[in-house]
Amino acid sequence: MKVTSIFAAGLAVALLCLSSIVFALPEDTVNINQASADEIATVLKGIGVKRAEAIVEYREEFGRFESMEELVAVLGIGQHILNVNKDRIVLTE
To answer: What is the pTM of this model?
Structure first.
């Protein structure tokens, strides 16, 4: 009986872990055309508050981002950061 309970508990944990991999949560993305610097820094990997502020400042000066690739024009944002975050960045509402 104990073996069955342990197996069931292990299976439940495995399913929970798998579901978090398969189903992306909405908070795993950020709209860089609308988000605050704090929101950007929270969601994007390798982006702290200073770089997030630079993204917002760039957006305010030049207008909305039309493509993710435009982010590399922001000081401190390189292709590696873009590649790491490509699934987290949203451009539209």
So the answer is: 0.71
CA distances from 46 to 16, 41, 80, 93 (A): 27, 8, 10, 24
Set out the domains of the chain in order of their start, with CATH numbers.
24-90 (1.10.150.280)
By residue count, the chain amounts to 93
Q: Quick count: other Cβ atoms within 10 Å of Cβ 59?
A: 19
Query: Which tens digits make up the pLDDT trace of 30-47?
Result: 999 999 999 999 999 999
